[in-house]
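ARCHIVE CARD
Drawer: 12
Card no.: 0347
Subject: one protein chain, sequence and derived structure
Cross-reference: see card 0346
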Amino acid sequence: MARGESLKFRAFVWLVLVSAAAAGAAGCAVRVSKKTTVPPAQTRQALDATQAELIAKYNQQAKAIRSLNATVKLKATAGSQYSGVVEQYHEVNGFILAQRPASIRVIGQAPVVNKNIFDMVSDGETFRIFIPSKNQFITGPAKFEKPSKKPIENLRPQHLVDALFWNEIREDAPVIFEETDDNGKREYVLTVLHGSRRDTNFEIERKIRFGRTDLNVAEIDNFGAEGKLESVVHYGDWQPAGEAQFARDIRVERPHDDYELDIQVTKIAVNETIAPERFHLAQPPGAQLVEAGKDQEESKP
């Protein structure tokens, strides 16, 4: 090595050493500004699971609940920042009877006086709702969707069926598995697609989120055609219910119907036989009959 090149090499080595020393000194200058010790009771461990394990857990829960008889508290919120008006309704006491595949009855009562505010049923084909204060008996197709100017009127018993009874993930369904960490909230997510693995054109069917602290379902996002977000259902406070598990806190969000419904389960019995007549709701004498969608159907050519 020539003398000039040797001097350049030594200068380079010296520069590297000085830079390393400076970086080390700067690192030593960094100090912890605040240290917080989380109490052991509040410490959470992120549990691990595979895609297959989560699918099996979800399907097991889906099969476990065949019927339910629950005492609940219901609280509705109608409107949003998009509609410009948000209306929060008073919490009411209620009862929910539900049985697979699609039978449900929901009764809401005013606190203290226990007077019915509404009574609604659905068999998966037709819904019926009686509102005593208006003396109206409303009926129509269970899947009828025509957003009302008053969002609270968009509430349908079938929306609750979809939240309470899950469809199993088909064995041949395409499923995407991912891990997320949103602001320290760690979750696993299963994205279930319509069709089978042999298809080439996919549409999203639902997203299922599992909390990493207990691997219970924390949220299910349900989608319709062309990726339309039909509902977001949150689940919390999972507790034993007979031989199964059931969430005691459920929130149903219907973005296009512009309402939310909070359901707090205070008492529940699952998988008991429910007599068919308990799902029967007849039009009371003198009540005004309102047939949802009839005007729309009659206007068709």
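Annotation on reverse: The longest strand covers residues 67-79. The radius of gyration is 28 Å.
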